[in-house]
Structure formats: structure tokens, C-alpha cells
Amino acid sequence: MKRNDSYLETKILFLDFDGVLNSKAWIKTPDKYLKSPIEPCKMNLLKRIISETNAKIVLTTSWREFWQFDKKHTNKTGEYIDKIFERYGLSVFSKTPDISFFERDKEVDFWLKDHYSQNVKSFCVLDDVEELFQNNLVIKKHLILTNPNEGISENDVSKAIKMLNKQ
């Protein structure tokens, strides 16, 4: 995993996609989901978090396997991720390593340790599956659990902004 060193004294938003940037209703509507698996209204909420915190986005989603630092090695799904984020004035900063789908907390912990966690001012994790964070209580304290039926909500956005801007 390539490291981007511009993370000194920064805020990190660890981001899942399904159940966060889309809802079950969106996923169950093939004409919408196949056109764009990410809901535009959810991207606006994500943009608000980033605008109000200046946090950097680190992918924890299983979709991260398609996104690469080196754009020569990115496939169409990775290009889609970059394009949709660019459309909203956002960009992906990094991604967690793929250790195990059921141990996302370890992946976040590993990323923090690998990226000199003493320089990460604050972080939060947006995800819809609480069980992926059962083994690490420190990481779990930073989890904002979204409702997979709805995806990210205004309330989740407020919690994320508060957590990331915590002094």
C-alpha cells in the first residue's frame, strides 16, 4: 500500500459505501442502482462532512479493491469512484488494507498505525455493520453506525462533524 504523506495533523473519515452512500431502497431499484450505485443525496451529505471538517477520505468499503493510487492500475469501477467523487469536489485520500471482511476494525487500526496515528488529529468511521468493529473498542468508539435501510442521515452527518472537529 502506497502512503501519501500529506496527512500530518489531519482528520480522517473512514468510509464504507453500501448502507452509507446508498440505501436498501436504492439498491433494490435496478434502474437507479445500475446507473449509479451511489445516491446523489448521500454524496451531498458526505460533501457536507468534508466541507465542515476538512477530513480526508480513507476507503474501508469492499469497493476499495477497485480503487488504486496509480490510475494505470485502476479498472472501470475505480474510475467510477474517482469520477463520482470529483463531481462533488471530493477525492479519495487512501484506503485500508484488505485483511478480512469481518475484521474491518483491524484494517482501520492497521491503517492508523501505518500512517503514524500520532499525526491524525481525529477520525471517525462511517459504516452500517456494527459487527465488523466488535474486536477493537477504541475503533468502535469512533464508529457512526448508519441505518442500511436509509444510508447516511442528517443525524449521522452531525455526529461525524462533531467527532471530527473535536478538540
The number of domains: 1
- One letter per element, helices H and strands E, the order comes to EHHHEHEHEHEH
Radius of gyration: 15 Å
Q: What is the CATH architecture assignment?
A: 3-Layer(aba) Sandwich
CATH homologous superfamily assignment: HAD superfamily/HAD-like
Highest-level CATH class: Alpha Beta
Short note summarizing the structure:
This protein is an alpha/beta fold and 167 residues long. It is built from seven helices and five strands, in the order E-H-H-H-E-H-E-H-E-H-E-H.
Could you give the topology of this structure?
Blueprint: E1 10-15, H1 24-27, H2 30-35, H3 40-53, E2 56-59, H4 76-87, E3 92-95, H5 104-114, E4 120-127, H6 137-140, E5 143-145, H7 154-164
Parallel strand pairs: 1-2, 1-4, 2-3, 4-5
Task: Give a verbal description of the structure.
This protein has helices at about 25, 30-35, 40-55, 75-85, 105-115, 135-140, 155-165, and strands spanning about 10-15, 55-60, 90-95, 120-125, 145. With about 170 residues, it is of the alpha/beta class. The chain has a single domain (about 10-165), classed as Rossmann fold (3-Layer(aba) Sandwich). Strands 3-2-1-4-5 form a five-stranded parallel beta sheet, with helices on both faces. Helix 3 runs parallel beside helix 7 (about 155-165).
Short descriptors:
about 170 residues, alpha/beta, Rossmann fold, five-stranded parallel β-sheet, 7 helices, about 35% helix, globular
